[in-house]
Write a structure and sequence with these properties.
Blueprint: E1 3-9, E2 15-20, E3 32-38, H1 41-51, E4 61-67, H2 86-98, E5 102-106, H3 115-119, E6 132-135, H4 140-148, H5 156-166, H6 169-180, H7 189-200, H8 204-216, H9 227-232, H10 234-243, H11 246-256, H12 278-282, H13 284-294, H14 297-314, H15 332-348, H16 356-371, H17 393-409, H18 414-430, E7 438-442, H19 451-455, E8 459-462, H20 465-482
Parallel strand pairs: 3-4, 3-5, 5-6
Antiparallel strand pairs: 1-2, 2-4, 7-8
Length: about 500
Amino acid sequence: MASSTVIGLASDGAPLRALVGDEEKNHVTDRLRVLLIGRSEETLARILAWFDSPASGLTRFTLAAVRDPAPDATYPPQGEAYAAAPEAHCLWRWIGLRAPDLVLIEGTAARPDDLGSQLARVAAAGVGTMPVVRLAWLSEETVAAALAGWHGEPSPARTAMWRRLARTPDEIARQLSACYANQLDQAVYIPAMALIGRLRLGETGAVEAIVAPYLDGRRQALAGLTSSHFGGHLLFGELAAITGKQAYLDLARAAADLAFDEQGIPHEAMPLHDEMSDSLFLVCPLLAQVGNLTGNPKYLAMCGRHMQFIQQRTWRDDGLYRHSPLDEAAWGRGNGFAALGLALSLDYLPVDDRLRPEVLEAFRVHMKALLAHQDATGMWHQVIDIPGSYRELSATCMIATALARGLRKGWLPAAPHGAALASAWHAIRARIAFDGGLVDVCAGTGKQGSLQAYLARPALLGPDPRGGAMALLIATELMAGGAGTASG
């Protein structure tokens, strides 16, 4: 039975809708996937109702439909998604990820740069091409005739999607590692997270070679200090735990010590926090990690102090996190930062630390709030509680990593969290190309002053180190023990 789903927002803020069947995510079905693109939502709804009835007899197909919101647009869309030509960007990427075997477009007039012409020539959303048939008008009769005359075979896009979804976490992790885990020009969180993923692949020697300049003095780990450096120094703590080398611990500790003044008195919070939820990830795990590795309780206490400082400013009554006090918007990656920060802090905190119950409760409350906003495809959105905002990959990867860690460690019950993780992993691997290209990663974002500013942040298509690092983290987390839970 077809149902309406929001696939994006138009330039005027109105929701863009499509009609999809129960097999929205089921790319592995033997049924051939057909997409109708028409002029009238009423006509499309009528055709889908007929299609679902025994009268159609078209049981070897699945059918979805969408009204073309931008018939005069140029494809592939140009400019930043989704600020420029949002209708065209949304439709192009949604079609690519849906990967139909055949597209039936209403209207016979064609231009070389229109949607129908380009779907047959260019891989939509980087996935693959697909055949297109133009019909003068869409009706039950014209659709039935078109399908009766079609030979019916999987499209290049569908075949490519099958291959994406067939990959194991290990295969995806190694593809991403080859793209994104090869440098540490600055000891900041994005390349550091990718290298932590590479450590989980057992490539400690290769990672040590990359970070060697920070041990021998050729590079200074805290040069040009930003808040991102605190998250980056988690890598040194990980290396210290794996190798037992004091030099790595000294680097991690040097960053953690910035939470204290020259007399060793703790600051109100770690400097450079900017009152953003990012800081729950960038700072709290580092303090917990250094406290665990050194056995010095002052770092653990500072972890709790900083966490409370940020939560007071960013934790909403509904369990989600506003990005900063400037606006109530529950930015997607801002919530990904919170989820992953709480999970990593829990992992590093000693089991008998007095802060642990408080962090565990905050983690569970946040996971419950997040699960309420996971969409039917498995994704979380650019703004968590705005369904029409774009489905954002980095936030979904971070939340899924926190879910997987919570399941593996026993912090979360299997139901409903296991199903949520399986759904997220399905969506994530669909959005990762074999060359490391990604679909819809929010560009770097500081604190914004309005909901509209978050909705308008660019959604990147193609290679992206931030999204690649977070995708590598979820893949290696599943390798560590959650893959069986997330096989769907």
